[in-house]
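Appendix B. Raw example, untouched.
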Amino acid sequence: MTTALIMLSAAPAPAAILPAAAQAGAPPSIAGVWEAEDGRMKIEMFEAGGSYSGRLLWGRRAVEADGRTFKRDVHNPDPTLRGRSLERITILQNLKWDAKDARWEGGSLYDGTSGRSLSAHMRLVQGKLEMRGYMGSPMLGRTLVFRRVPG
């Protein structure tokens, strides 16, 4: 047998390599309802065309004193949106899986109580979803930890 033939017969078949490589970089699903550990916010994460987005289901600062009536988006930089309710607005967008860093990156986070948009990334750590919102550098941001709501 020639050396080249021996090397080929000893190498694993390409089809056997591909599934393992694909699984190594496959992100876990974060779709579903998540509640902040401190109880300040509840969001619903959903797939949106190759990325993840999230909508606000409830937020302590997003509701009136009665705890049920949602405030209006009065601080929105777009004057045409200032009359809408903060209820179920999409506050997270464009979170895409980065296998190298094992997190969802490149997202934006909209804070309807201030009208500010921040950069965001998320990662799953021991079954909890850590969302980091920041302006400029992630080091200057804040992390909220969410637990999945059974459902």
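End of appendix B.
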